[in-house]
Amino acid sequence: MNQLQSMRVFVKVADLGSFVGAAGALDLSTAVVTRHVADLEARLGTRLLNRTTRRLSLTESGTTYLERVRHILDDLEGVEQMVVARNHEPVGTLRIVAPVVFGLHSLAPVVQSYAARYPDVVPDVTLADRHVDLVEEGFDVGILVARHMRSASIVTRRLTTGYLTVCATPAYLAQHGTPTRPEHLLSHPCLSRPAEQGGEERVFTGPNGEVRVRPTNAIVANNTEMLRQFALLGMGVAILPSYLIGRDLASGRLVPLLRDYRLPQIEITIAYPSRLHLPAKVRTFIDHLVEYFQQPGRQARDPRTVAPARSVTESTKVVADMDDLSLPELAADAARPSHKSARSRIAASSPF
């Protein structure tokens, strides 16, 4: 028989002084209660109860055993209550992993507002542009950008949608001309990630259907924030996600190009291990993320539908003045969190 259950039965018999009474309290038969106590005595090799036809009494060994067992059962109940509380109340450390650029530009404000709402949870954020195993590495929640995953042990939920934007500075466009069709990118230096070296084919959808072009790479960087800085310095044309350059477009520092064409959208999703017995800290953080990005003004907008902040001519001086900014100053500006939204093995990294 189950030793733990036998211990519980023995305590109940000792408290009530009756096999029959214990059987009724535990919703068991008297025979089963008797068997539990007999099994304990056989395991211990000693008698715990003195039995007569009229009453039960504890032996000396039974008294000692009862005292210790009662402490064990009380401790066990306390542990169970603590675990249940942690599953129903948001407490403890919440381990979050997200791609570097998305984390720097979009994640800080939502983590701050969550921490303010649930002060008993300690967010532990890891930014990583690599493949991450949520289960093996002990992460509670992962954010995926433009990645798809299939795994029976991982659950995904859509968070928001980002948009890819072809852009350049007004100063660059004033000097090199403004491309108006995807084919025009072939005559402009393009800024790309390493995976795109050699020219990645881009598929645009325009007024006359699909247009496929393979832009010429001029500068390559393994981080989209660095590509943004190159673009802000007027070094070429870049294709960057809306959550990264929303403020640049709104201020006129970057100008959206090819407004009659669109690139595939970027799906941003949440991933977490299994729906079964989901801890409260994970459940509330996922709900908070979704609520945050659904608020007005935080959903990413397609730059093609937003009127430019200034004309190219009007903006040229604004961005030309930025030539005096040092690279660290540009990096500091980029590091400020933006409120613009955008297999157990997953990719926390992103090509964007």
UniProtKB/TrEMBL annotation:
Residues 1-59 form the HTH lysR-type domain. PROSITE patterns: HTH_LYSR. Keywords: DNA-binding, Transcription, Transcription regulation. Residues 333-352 are annotated as: Disordered. SUPFAM superfamilies: Periplasmic binding protein-like II, Winged helix' DNA-binding domain. InterPro entries: LysR-type_TF_proteobact-type, LysR_HTH_N, LysR_subst-bd, WH-like_DNA-bd_sf, WH_DNA-bd_sf. Belongs to the LysR transcriptional regulatory family. This is LysR family transcriptional regulator. It comes from Paraburkholderia dipogonis.
